[in-house]
Amino acid sequence: MNAPRPDVLQRRRQILDAADEVFCEHGVHAPLELVVERAGLGRATLYRNFPDRRALLAALLDRALQALEQCARDSAARPDGLFVLIRDLAEHTAVCAPLADYWRSVGRADPLVEQAHQRIMDSLMPLLRQAIAAGLCRADVGERDIAIVVDMLAVCLRGGDEQERRSLAADSARLVAQALEAPGRAGGRRPQTVQAATA
Description:
Layout: H1 6-26, H2 32-39, H3 43-49, H4 53-74, H5 81-95, H6 97-106, H7 111-133, H8 143-152, H9 162-180, H10 192-198
Helix pairs in contact: 1-2, 4-5, 4-7, 5-7, 5-9, 7-8
């Protein structure tokens, strides 16, 4: 199968960038005409790439997960990569609150939501094992605990605006990091890398 032409990929990126902005500003039920206007493209181009709203939302979800997976790869060599990724996940939830809230409302039974959850866990678990091996994370933290952490980060959605949600995201990531720390580290001086990841 031939790869899409660069101009086709560029138009798709334009639509996704526009949809990301519009949905974050006006909610996921904003008129798709706003997306068309923001992208500077025709309505036919939108529907040629994304036949309906769910297809557009699914593409935004996939793009966010790809970014998270890239962050996980970039953090793979860092003992504190787990804390870096948790901070990144919390911040993304805060910035894209309407999108995150939409997928939470859909429910875990939805195949797309279940796949997204699995991709998040697949990114976090190797970093968890690495943090435990480096003595930065408690040895008794397991997959169920990390799944709970992912769900807890949704507290960022309670902020009234993006600035407040960003502040809540930073606080949430910091508190989660402190809870996951290996015994003897909480309340003491943490390694510089962990401090940087949770500041």
